[in-house]
Amino acid sequence: MKEVPDHLDHGLSVVFIGFNPSPKSGETGHHYANPRNNFWRILYQSGLTPRLYEAAEDRDLLKLGYGFTNIVARPTRGAEDIAREEYKEGRLILRSKLEEYRPKVACFVGKGVYTEYSLRPRTEWGFQENSVVDGVLDFVAPSSSGLVRMKMEEIVGIYRQLALFLSVDQGTR
User: How far apart are CA 8 and CA 55, in angstroms?
Assistant: First the structure.
């Protein structure tokens, strides 16, 4: 399977960062393409997007100020299939991307993604007290995988914190 291309640009409000693409994303070339993944529904229900987008429209979110990347580029069935060496390399590549593009917020889609990136063993949901890259706020959100056992309302509520921050930051509320 081929890697899913990043959607990055300078001046983004948020870059969403996942573990790595699913096989479905590898097949289609789009982020969060597995139909059992709740990512697009979460963005809409939390107020981060004005309508429900589909994975095939992922590049269009650049217009909203949102980008996409992963800590590991290689598609796998699950995060357990990622080798330690891939995380080590991915951590350096991701940091370089964040330093180059400098989004306002790096949103880690899952605590595990953040702990692999930051090498901090524990974290809480939401904004982190100390970011890894100066000038880029780290925000930890629940994974959007359909396997997550949290209630959808609770997941959406955490993402809503990000939406509220962005609306206040951009002076829309």
Answer: 16
First to last CA, the chain: 43
Could you tell me the residue ranges of all domains in the chain?
14-169
Contact (CB, 8 A) for 93 and 74: no
Over residues 104-132, mean pLDDT: 95
User: What average pLDDT does this structure show over 4-18?
Assistant: 97
Alpha-carbon gap, residue 100 to 122, rounded angstroms: 27
Cα separation of 173 and 168, whole Å? 6
The model's pTM = 0.94
Domain 14-169 = CATH 3.20.20.70: no
**Cβ atoms within 10 Å of 125's Cβ, excluding its own:** 17
